[in-house]
Amino acid sequence: MDHFVDGNALAGSLRQVFRPDITTAEARCAGCGAVRPVADFRVYTAAPGAVARCAACGQVTLQLVQSPGALWLGMSGLSYLRFPPPGR
Amino acid sequence: MSALTPGFRGGRRTVSDRVPPGQYLTEGFPVLSAGPTPVVDTGEWSFTVVNEVGERVSWDWAAFSRLPHESPTVDIHCVTRWSKLDTTWRGVSVDTLLAEVATAADFAVVHSVDGYTANVPLQDLTDGQAWVVTGYEGAPLAAEHGGPARFLVPHLYFWKSAKWVSGITLHDEDQPGFWERAGYHDYGDPWLEQRYQSGW
Lengths: 88, 200
Fold this sequence. Notes:
The complex is a heterodimer of chains A (88) and B (200).
Chain A: H1 11-15, E1 26-29, E2 35-37, E3 42-44, E4 50-53, E5 60-67, E6 70-74, E7 78-82
Antiparallel strand pairs in A: 1-2, 1-7, 3-4, 4-5, 5-6
Chain B: E1 24-25, E2 46-50, E3 56-60, H1 61-66, E4 73-77, E5 82-93, H2 94-98, E6 107-112, E7 117-121, E8 131-136, E9 139-140, E10 150-152, E11 165-171
């Protein structure tokens, strides 16, 4: 048997992730494995979108593109984001 | 800026005819970059074309310099809405480079030394539509503009004209590049305002 539920089941947990300030979350670079706060990223904005790079190795971690109809968040350069527990 | 000439009935295009919708003209040359400017030593630089079955042909700086060069004067259009007219470059036609490679591929990916990529249909790189350029306005191409060598495919938005190029790979299937994976249009025709992926 293949037991699963739909993505709505993630709503409660992901509410802790997609919150106003994620800069205190720790991010693991998929390139070099460095784990640092999002606030430590080096961000280049003189570009068609914002590009965040790992401060340790320079690899792209995030891409943000704002179009008239959407905000795109590319995260292929991240292994994970780790969030401090609420209230910390 | 009014560039229309009253009463003009000739076949020559006016300046306003040359500015795609949603663009403004600039006299400067804005520098856009998604990362630090890499230091590329021409003594270590090479340009490599890899076809869809993995066959490769490479040119080092000296060999590349001996290839026939052209000096195209073209208009360029950045997706951030600036356009610049009559820019003159010096470089090698992609036709010259592809002449050394057997291919039946339909798609190309342009690669930069810093990992940047941009995808372009192969038919948009042939017949005098694209170059690998090493000079701009009579001088060696500055590093901030992609020197020692950048791509130039002026009929598409300028993010396709990758800086600090290192090569082209040829593919049977389309492979979206750095910005195309993050919301930008797969093709990027400035005259059709193909800025973002369809519907967004």
